Amino acid sequence: MPSTSVDHSAAPAAPATAAARRRANPWLTLYAVAFGLFMVQLDGSVVAIANPEIGRELHASSAQLQWVTNAYLLALAATLILGGKLGDRFGRRTFYLAGVAGFALSSVAIGLSGSITGVVAFRALQGVFGGLLMPNTLGLLRAVFPPRKFGMAVGIWAMVSAVSTALGPIVGGLLVEHVDWESVFYINLPIGVLACAFSAFVLPQSKNATGRDRFDVTGVVLLALGLLSVVFGVVKGETWDWTSAGTWAAIGVGLLLLLLFGRHETRVPHPLLPMRLFRSRDLTIGTVITALNFFVMLGVIFFVMLYLQNVRGLTPVQAGVRTLPLSLASLVASPLGAALTARFGARFCMPLGMLLQAAACFALLTWSGDSSYATMWPPFVALGLGVGMVLSASSDAIVGNAPVRDGGVAGGLQATTLQIGGALGTSVLVSVISARVGSTLRTELTGAGVPDGLAGKLAGAKDAVAMGVAPVSPDMPGTLRAAVAEGSGRAFMNGVHASAVVTGVLCLLGAALAAAGMRGGARAEEA
Predict the structure, then answer these.
(1) Same domain, yes or no, for 193 and 71?
(2) Any idea which of 127-131, 166-170, 391-395, 396-400 has the lowest mean pLDDT?
(3) Is the dihedral angle over the CA atoms 510, 512, 514, 516 positive or is it negative?
(4) Exposed/middle/buried for 262, CB within 10 Å: 0-12, 13-18, 19+?
């Protein structure tokens, strides 16, 4: 049976053993992978802030601007499990360092590209290197931490992930406002240099002992094409319309390829993604809850930022500061969730986190176009607590229930479901908001005092209103402009409330699934 081992050099026995003990320090390994994780997660949220400025300076259309995000997301989704498998087989340290270095250098290339085509191309390359980096962070932790301490390590890993994501709007806003949009990519270079320098010294070279097995090329192709097709259909669903033939064709082809991938994996001796992993009920449910967790978090943050910036008129920095309670709550929740998981099991911690998120979503129903901050911060706290706790528990359920030899693959599985859940959250909730705005905009405009004929014409601007932008023009009289802004704000809030109900119900369903399906007590491996 293959096992995870730490490579030793050809030096004399005693010094080699001492060096291995020094280099395989679990906590130094955790600090090392935190650098790379922080870089990738921060990049994902600062780019969202920079997109409008990228569009203005590079004269990009809205469709081109979408590909700044979509190219990265597609490349990342297609390579995450492959990156974990490569690390498991050939060396997790090697592929983690390659991912960090490549991610930092491709970030610099984005800033130097000077064209929207170059930005999109290098964003795709950045996604490929992110796919090498992300799964091997968890694979390295799984290889060096004993089971009784792995949960706490995952809690700190989750804390770094949540805090860096939440800090993105503040960092991105400061850089875009006071430097330029290129700086949001250049910032990855010093982080990457520090990560490589520190990691090269402290990380162990953990990998599976069997390195001569045939590589599953067919599985790689089927999985990559299947994930590409599904994620492409998801991210284009909002612009193509969710009922369009193109959307469902892309998703349907992707699902068919993934089914073929699953069948293929059961028939090869050395599969890319061993289907035996899903014999663990906790791992399977943890995968579902991970996708749901990021569906809620990224979807809610997306429309909250639209509300704060477009409806309330805040700058990106001001909006980021308003969401600091979410960051601080995540900072507390991730290690707390790990401690609770270690003490009571994921069956307790995961439903608790989903219930906190449900409470946050339903609290959004009290928001209006002029809500005070006292109404805003409690949902941020509940959302941060819930997301952090679920991230710790679900990561432990996925990676902690996989054999050590499959740690990188399990990390890739976790990261893949996380990315797909986030893509679904943004796309689906934008569609929910758009549909609700479209059905209520005319009524809200006339209710605010806009003449019925003009309200009918302005109802065609539902796409702008769904982004929180009122269809006003400078030549409108002041009273009419105020009425249009008021009616548009009400319609947008109708969409926000509909999205809050959808996410709240999904959180309740996730809590029920975790409570009913997860095992109680310790993992079988620990028992």
Answers:
(1) yes
(2) 166-170
(3) negative
(4) middle
| Domain end among 180, 207, 234 | 207
* Most confident of the ranges 199-208, 390-399, 462-471, 477-486: 477-486
Same domain, 94 and 145: yes
What are the CA-CA distances from residue 188 to residues 34, 40, 150 (Å)? 14, 9, 28
Do 149 and 175 lie in one domain? The reply is yes
Within a domain: 54: yes
> Are the C-beta atoms of residues 119 and 113 closer than 8 Å to each other?
yes
* The model scores a pTM over 0.90: no
Task: Count the Cβ atoms, other than its own, within 10 Å of residue 12.
Answer: 8
Which residue is listed with tokens 């679904």?
424
Q: Which residues pair with 207 in a beta bridge?
A: 5
Domain span at residue 454?
437-495
Residues 100 and 138 in one domain: yes
One domain, residues 58 and 159 = yes
Coil vs helix vs strand at 3: coil
Q: Is 114 a member of any domain?
A: yes
At 217-245, the pLDDT tens digits run 788 788 888 877 887 787 676 667 767 88
DSSP state of 400: T
Please indicate whether residue 207 or residue 32 has the higher confidence score (pLDDT): 32
Beta carbons of 41 and 165 less than 8 angstroms apart: yes
For position 108, what pLDDT does the model report? 94
